[in-house]
Design a protein that fits this description.
2 copies of one chain form a homodimer. Chain A is of the alpha/beta class. Chain A is built from 14 helices and 14 strands. Chain A has 2 domains: 132 residues, Aspartate Aminotransferase, domain 1 (Alpha-Beta Complex); 247 residues, Type I PLP-dependent aspartate aminotransferase-like (Major domain) (Aspartate Aminotransferase, domain 2), CATH 3.40.640.10. In chain A, 44% of the residues lie in helices and 15% in strands. Chains A, B: Homodimer.
C-alpha cells in the first residue's frame, strides 16, 4: 500500500543474520561472525582517549561538527594513510560513519536505478545489498585466490555492449571478505589503468589491510594509481577504524578526487549532518596517543594464532572433505566442500553439532558456488575452541 | 566525466553555510546558527553517563550493535515517547544517527526519481536537499503562523492530477524551523485524516517539541493518529536528542508502522550498519539517570529569556521595519522586512555592522518570500548581546 521504491526481497546477508540467533546458544562455537574479537579491544587505551577527549573539550564532543569531519582527526587519518603509502591533503578526506557510509554516499551520487556496476564475486554482502537498494544492475567480476582476475575483467569490459558504461567497481583488495584473497601489486596497477581506460570509479574498500600476519605488505591501489598520471581521478579509497580500533566508534573515512568529495559532502549533509563528534574526538585522541602502532601487532599476533589453529585443525580433521584458500591476513578463511556437497545443507547438521559458519551463497550476486563457506577465525576465543569447532564440523560431515 | 546522478547545483542551505565563515569574526553577533546553545549542555550529567557506560560495559560501547539500536536505549526512548502521549512497542523504534538519518532512510525506501513529495514551505533546508538529491518532485504546501494550512492543502490534493500520488509530506509541526509555528490540535487531527485519505506518509519531524516556553502543550500528530482507526499506518515520527541532550551524540529515532520499519532497517544496514554504540550507551545511561527531566526546564527557561530579549529589542529598535511571528517555544523567530525590502540585500549591510541572520529564501523550494529572515535566539550568549545585535540591525537598515 505504500508503493515502495523496490520490492523487499530477502536482503543479501539475511542468511548471515539468521545465524545470529544461534550465537548465544550455550556451548555454540561460531566461525560465522564478521566481527573483530571483543577480547582484543584496547579497552584501557580507548577509555583514556575518551576521558581525554571529554575532559579537554566537552563542547567539541557535544556540539555539531563539520560535515567533513574534525580537521584534527582528518590530519591523524592522513598520517595513517601516509604510512600506507598514500599521501593526500586534509580536504581529500571525509570522516564517515563507518566505511559503510562512505560506500553509501558514493552510491548516492553515482548510481541511478538501472546503472551497471561491477562487483567482485564473491563479495561483502552489505555492499551487494547497498547497490541493490539503489537499483544497480550488478555485473559480477571473477576472482581467484589472488583476488580479481584482471585479464578476465579486461575481456569482460571489452565485450560490453558499447551503451554500457559501468559506473563503478567494488573490491576489497586486501584480505578480502569473504575470500581472504590479496591482490598482487601487478594486478593493482593493471586495475588502476583499467579504471582510467574504461572510466569507472574503482572503489577500494580497505578495512583489513593492516591485519597482515604473513607475507610482504602491498600498498593500496590508491598508491599505485598515484604513480600513473590521471589514474587517481578514478580511485576512491575507504578506510575504517572498526577492525583496528573498535567498530563501536563508527569511524571510517573516504579519500576521493575533489569532484567526488565535493558531492559526497552534500550527500553526507543530508545523510546524518556529521559523524558523531564524541566518537570523532575519541578516535582523534586515540590516534594521537600513538597506541595504535603498539596495539595493531597485538591484534595481528592473536589472529595469526587463531588462523594457525584453524588451518591445522582443517588439515588434521577434514583433509579429504574441505579445501581452503590460504590467507596472508585479515579475519577469514574461504573454504570449499569437496565431492559436490552443499554448504547450506551441511549447516543444518553443523548446528546440531553446535558449530556454525556462513554458507558461501550469501556472498554471491548470482550463480553461487554451493560448496563454498566462510570460516571466520577472528572471533574464536582460543585455539582449543577452534580445534573443537573443526572436530564438530567433521562430525557434521559424517552425519549425512 | 563521472556521470553523476544529479547535476550539482548550489545545495539548499549553502547560503547558511556561507555565513559560517563570519561566525568566528571578533565581535560578531549571530542570529544565524541553528545549533543549540553550547552553554546549556548538561556537561556533568553527560560526562557521568559516558563514564558509567564505558566502565560498566566497555564491550557494548566498542563492538558492533543491533542495526535497530540497543534494546535498552529503545526502551528509554519509548518512555520518553509515552510522556509525549505516544505509546508503542520496542520493535517500532529504530535508533538513527540523528533524526536526519531517519528522513534519509525513509526517502531511500519510498522516493524514486520523479516521485511527488509534499513539503511545508518554508522548510528545514536539509530536508529539501535530501529530497532533491533523491530526485523528488517537490510540491510546496502553504503555511501560516499556525503551520500547515490544512484547508489549502486539502484543496491542493483534490486538484492534483489523478496520476499524481504524493509519496510523503514533510512537516515540523511544533516550533517549526524556520517559522517557529506550532500546528494546533484540530489541524493535527485533520492532517492525519488527510494522510489516510490520500495515502501519503506523513513525516512528523519533532526535534524541538519539548522546548515550549509558553502556551499549552499539544501532542504529536502521531498521538492524534492513534485515535483514528487506520491513520497511524500513515504517520512516521522522528525524534532526536540533539536539541535536548546534545547533537554530538548523533542520536535520533524513528517510530513507524511495521512495514516501513522493516524496510528502513534494511536501508539502515546498508547506510552505516548501526548507530555508534558508544553514543547509544551514553544516551541510554543519560536517559536512565533521570537528569533529562530536570535539565529540559533549564534549557527552556534560558531560551525563553533569550526570546523575550529578542522580541523586546525588535519592538524597541525596529518596530516600523520588522514584523515577526510569535513562537511558543523552540529556537527561532521568523521575521519579515516591511516596505518590500529584501533580507538578502540587508544581510550585506548587517555583516558590515557585525550581525548576521539567515535570509528566508534558503528555506523555500520556489517563489521565496524575499522579505523573510530567520533569527535564532537559542545560541545568543546573553540578553545584552541580543539587544546589541538588534541595535546593529537597525543601523544596517538605516545604512541603505
Amino acid at each position: 500500500m505504500y508503493n515502495f521504491t523496490e520490492p523487499l526481497k530477502a536482503p543479501q546477508g539475511s542468511a548471515i543474520r539468521e545465524l545470529f540467533k544461534y550465537l548465544g546458544r550455550p556451548g555454540m562455537i561460531s566461525f560465522a561472525g564478521g566481527y573483530p574479537s571483543k577480547d582484543l579491544f584496547d579497552r584501557a587505551g580507548i577509555g583514556q582517549a575518551l576521558e581525554d577527549a571529554y575532559s579537554s573539550d566537552p563542547v567539541a564532543c557535544l556540539q555539531y561538527g563539520d560535515t567533513a569531519g574534525s580537521p584534527a582527526l582528518r590530519r591523524a587519518i592522513l598520517r595513517l594513510m601516509n604510512d600506507r603509502g598514500v599521501t593526500r591533503d586534509v580536504d581529500d578526506v571525509i570522516v564517515t560513519t563507518g566505511s559503510q557510509q562512505g560506500l553509501d554516499l558514493l552510491i548516492k551520487i553515482l548510481v541511478a536505478p538501472g546503472d551497471a556496476v561491477l562487483i567482485e564475486e564473491p563479495a561483502y554482502p552489505a555492499a551487494i545489498q547497498a547497490l541493490r537498494l539503489a537499483g544497480a544492475r550488478l555485473i559480477p567480476v571473477r576472482t581467484d585466490a589472488q583476488g580479481i582476475d584482471v585479464d578476465a575483467l579486461t575481456a569482460q569490459l571489452e565485450a560490453l555492449d558499447p551503451g554500457t558504461r559501468p559506473k563503478l567497481l567494488y573490491t576489497v583488495p586486501t584480505f578480502a571478505n569473504p575470500t581472504g584473497a590479496t591482490l598482487p601489486a601487478a594486478r593493482r596497477e593493471a586495475l588502476a589503468r583499467l579504471a582510467m581506460r574504461f572510466r569507472f570509479v574503482l572503489v577500494e574498500d580497505d578495512p583489513y589491510g593492516e591485519l597482515r600476519f604473513t607475507g610482504e605488505s602491498v600498498k593500496p591501489i590508491a598508491a599505485f594509481a598515484d604513480a600513473i598520471p590521471g589514474a587517481s581521478d578514478w580511485v576512491v579509497y575507504f578506510g575504517s577504524l572498526s577492525k583496528i580500533v573498535a567498530p563501536g566508534l563508527r569511524i571510517g573515512w573516504s579519500i576521493a578526487p575533489p569532484a567526488i568529495t565535493r558531492r559526497m559532502l552534500v550527500a553526507k549533509q543530508t545523510s546524518d549532518l556529521c559523524t558523531s563528534p564524541l566518537a570523532q574526538e575519541t578516535a582523534r585522541h586515540y590516534l594521537e596517543s600513538g597506541r595504535l602502532a603498539e596495539h595493531v601487532p597485538v591484534i595481528v599476533q592473536a589472529y595469526r594464532k587463531r588462523y594457525d589453529a584453524l588451518s591445522s585443525a582443517l588439515r588434521q580433521f577434514v583433509p579429504d572433505d574441505i579445501d581452503y584458500v590460504v590467507p596472508q591476513g585479515g579475519m577469514f578463511v574461504w573454504a570449499r566442500l569437496k565431492g559436490g556437497r552443499h554448504s547450506t545443507d551441511l549447516l543444518k547438521r553443523a548446528i546440531e553439532q553446535n558449530v556454525i559458519y556462513v554458507p558461501g551463497p550469501a556472498f554471491y550476486v548470482r550463480d553461487p558456488d554451493e560448496s563454498s563457506m566462510r570460516l571466520s577465525f577472528a572471533a574464536a576465543p582460543g585455539e582449543a575452541e577452534v580445534f573443537e569447532g573443526v572436530r564438530r564440523l567433521k562430525l557434521a560431515l559424517a552425519s549425512r
